[in-house]
Amino acid sequence: MIVPDGMQALHALVASAERCGMPERLFAVAAWRDAPPLHQAGSGLGPRERCMTATSSRGRIVAYWVTTALVAFELGSGGAGDVLRIQPVVEGMAHLGYTAYFCVILGVWKVLGAVAVLAPRFPRLKEWAYAGTVFDLTGAAASHLAVGDGAIKLLSPIIFTGLAFASWALRPSSRRLIEFKNQSGVLHD
Fold first, then answer.
1. Are the CB atoms for 160 and 71 separated by under 8 Å?
2. pTM
3. 186: how many CB neighbours lie within 10 A of its CB?
């Protein structure tokens, strides 16, 4: 029977899912876009490698969304507390040597950063949001260090900085800037 390449690939995916013991729906949804084409000759992937590719691809997507959700929650909730000038937030900022109006400025940027990280498309905006997140969190760690706070106060900004880097590194290709070299060898996006 002759089937189009797309259908042949789908049949190969289903057959591979059955060999791996994975439910067809899960395999097809998790790996259809991200798995290498199975119907191309010379792909070099056997059934086991195809299963591992689909599983690692799914794991990467889950890891991306978990880290991104945590970063967005930290930015959004922290930003809302800053904008609303909640008393413990204002006291904490005063302890670090910042004035109360700085809470509002920082809070607005945090909320906008949370929206940018979660929103589809706009990869350049996401790059700026991730950079701003790292600046905010490393600045918080440096501020706590400067006033002599203990290591426990440094832990939260350092952990969230790591989560921001993980979220940035795990982004799917649809959420990345595409760089290429033109004929003169100059990078563009």
1. yes
2. 0.66
3. 8
